[in-house]
Amino acid sequence: MDLDSLAPDWAEQAAPGPTSTDVEFDFSDHALTGLRNADMAVLPPGSTGTFSECALEQNYGVALAAHDIRPGRLLCDITSDNRVALLRVTDVQHDAVGTPDQVTFDAVVWVRPHKN
Which domain of life is it from (predicted)? Predict the structure, then answer.
């Protein structure tokens, strides 16, 4: 998924996506990962998911493992266009053995204001 895209579905595609892909749900290990120039961080419990929390987070470059994907988890992403994004997991569907196979989330992508 390309969080910099203006497409209503953020140009969602099956993995592997194009070079602009920021976040991917990997069907081999069922983890959420940040890709290429995009880095992902998982916010600790108790976080509210603000721009400052994401912009100041130091633990980028991680994946959210399948067993940790659950509603309410907050992830920050530095997109391929260097924007700060927040993903809030809202729903997880599991396969017959309990492995996540579909993840739904809300996303906020902050864009720097234009200078005059």
Answer: Bacteria
